Amino acid sequence: MNYSTLKKSLAVSFVALMGATTLASAQDATTSSSAKVFGGRSQYRTWSIGVNAGVLSPFVAIGGTNDFNKMDVNLGYGISLRKQLGHAFGLEGNIFRGKVSGTNEAGPDALGGGIRGFETEMQYGVDLRGVVNVATVDFLRRENSVNFFVTAGYGLLAYNPIVDGNDRKGQFGEDGDKDFIKEAYIPVGAGVKFKVSDRVAFNLGYTMHFIDGDNFDGVYAKATTKDKFSYGYAGLEFSLGSKSKPNLDWVNPLALMYDELKDPSLRNEVEALKTRVSAVEASVEALKKDSDGDGVSDQFDKCPGTPAGTAVDGSGCPLPKAPEPTALNAGNLTGFETIQFEFNSSVLKTESYPTLDKLSSVLRENGGKVTVNGYASSEGTAAYNLKLSKDRANSVKTYLVNSGVNASQVVTKGHGEANPIASNDTEEGRIQNRRVESARN
Q1: Owning domain of residue 393
Q2: What is its main location (predicted)?
Q3: pLDDT tens digit string along 244-270?
């Protein structure tokens, strides 16, 4: 087949194919999709099958050495099956056939050891490639219609090289009884895909094939080199699967995310959430309301309407009148119980709050200073018990300061195991020794 005939054949074929795809496009109704951004591949069409045809050449675009210096134009053709794994990546299986040939100029400097020409018949080439969508011309539009892609993979090629008309078919292999040579190859290519319809795409591509051998053209003139050939092609790709699902190839994830965010049901959920938040905020404000200004909210105030400035306890009721200052003579503060603690703990018990509230009231109304002495039972080391007794004294001081007592009015001391008020040989005695006592300075 000469070059002119090849051009005419390809032109007629693709005019017919484009007509068919236009008809398919007219019949393909646009369908709405409920696909979600993170909904998985099952919501898309991910399988496609393609056919292609084009020109085979013993040369590649990146150059390099060749055993022949002129190429012939030959037809190649193939089919493909692809599984799209994501918006930008898929796996594609390819099978193709064709013929590659070349010639050398006559003369003393001819390449290929004086061989004038070769013609290699490819029984088949089969490979698996990764396909990466590297750019989309109209990615910022809602619908993509042009994709650029690159491919790379690994395959196996079976071929029969004929050199200067010498056909060695049936003489290949270790035993000299094989019709074809089989070699591995690596395909590397790039191309552009045009969306014809929701089902059909038109592809233009170029692939370089690097063969793991130096016998593709039947010449071993450069034993350290590997042979190669290229395939420039055009083809059609058909999406398989339910027409109710979109083709993953053409889904714009940004547009999909925008639609999902603008979904009316989602907006309604957001508005409902705002209403619930407003209701919660109103409830919180109601909880904080303190009509009599005594520091206890109305929700928990058992004695509403207390006069301004009245000292109240945690339930909002007036505290008992504090004893006169003369009641604060030396020794333990008169009328105040010892504060007890759990084993190995410096956390105040709730039953100690009324005692501490009374002590706080006396200090706030009468002034003066108080020494808070912390103690521990005899379990553990002396150093640890000393620290624990200090922590217990500081817990009392923290409570008093938080209730309005000036920090300078409270002095804390830790005595560890010293000064037990009961025997540490019994649990009952140890419980009594885990304590804090308050004494006026």
Answers
A1: 325-440
A2: membrane
A3: 898 888 887 777 777 777 766 767 777
